[in-house]
Design brief:
Layout: H1 9-15, H2 30-43, H3 57-70, H4 72-82, H5 119-123
Helix pairs in contact: 2-3
Length: 124
């Protein structure tokens, strides 16, 4: 991993006060979650492609999605930018990696033209 995808102790200490309090049942630390977020951001991988060393990708995704909805990630990104610790654009961050399937008509498939007669009518 590069230094760009990991927070140093000093960097994490500066943004730790911006993070919500951790519950006792949480297995993945906030630091692990933030390192995973930086990894996905800089490497451009999907959440499922996140290396196992960060922990369960779904657990991290759910936490960061919750943080995104409540504004925690925006506060963290702005704090990192103010400190010039990272160059993150909070407006272009995306946590959703779902793929929406397109119907055959929307993908350029040829449409059938005109009515077709059934076999019974054609024989009669």
């Amino acid at each position: 991993m590069t230094d760009q995808t990991r927070l140093s102790d000093e960097q994490y200490a500066r943004i730790e006060p911006l993070l919500p309090q951790r519950g006792n049942h949480v297995k993945i630390s906030h630091r692990q979650a933030l390192d995973a977020w930086l990894y996905v951001y800089y490497q451009g991988c999907t959440w499922r492609g996140l290396p196992r060393e960060f922990g369960n990708w779904h657990t991290i995704y759910v936490r960061l999605n919750r943080w995104a909805k409540t504004g925690v990630l925006e506060r963290v990104a702005r704090a990192l930018q103010q400190e010039l610790l990272a160059e993150l654009d909070a407006d272009t961050l995306s946590l959703d990696s779902t793929i929406i399937p397109v119907h055959a008509h929307g993908s350029g498939a040829r449409r059938k033209r005109g009515a077709r007669r059934s076999g019974a009518r054609a024989a009669g």
